[in-house]
Specification:
By secondary structure, the protein is α+β, with helices and mostly antiparallel strands. It has one domain. It is built from four helices and three strands, in the order αααβββα. A three-stranded antiparallel beta sheet has the order 1-2-3, with helices on one face. The relative contact order is 0.16.
């Protein structure tokens, strides 16, 4: 939802946005979205690091053999429970999808604000 709002704000002409919500409100709105995207990127990445370090590796780089679940860290495999492996994999999938979108949205809004100011 936030990403859709960012795209809508970037595709609309600056004049039409200013007319509809006002220049000061638009600037405040974009700053709020940018701050939210930054916080989302930081929290997602931090959760990814904490989960990978606490479990001893990555489920995406790990493997499943004969009903045993392994996480991998630089070629070294550690066995974990199925539930831990699924949690690790879910966290990694969220990070690899949400983190790049948050960064792209943050950068897009930053460029838009610079273009508008300059």
């Amino acid at each position: 939802m936030i990403f859709a709002a960012v795209l809508a704000a970037l595709h609309a002409s600056p004049r039409s946005l200013q007319d509809s919500i006002g220049c000061a409100a638009m600037t405040s709105y974009l700053k709020s979205i940018r701050a939210t995207l930054f916080a989302t990127a930081v929290i997602t990445f931090a959760a990814f690091i904490v989960v990978d370090f606490s479990m001893g590796g990555s489920a995406l780089a790990g493997k499943v053999e004969n009903g045993h679940f392994y996480v991998a860290d630089h070629g070294k495999y550690s066995q974990v429970s199925e539930r831990a492996w699924m949690f690790n994999r879910s966290c990694e999938e969220v990070m690899w999808s949400v983190f790049p979108l948050s960064v792209i949205g943050y950068v897009a809004i930053s460029f838009y604000e610079k273009r508008k100011a300059g």
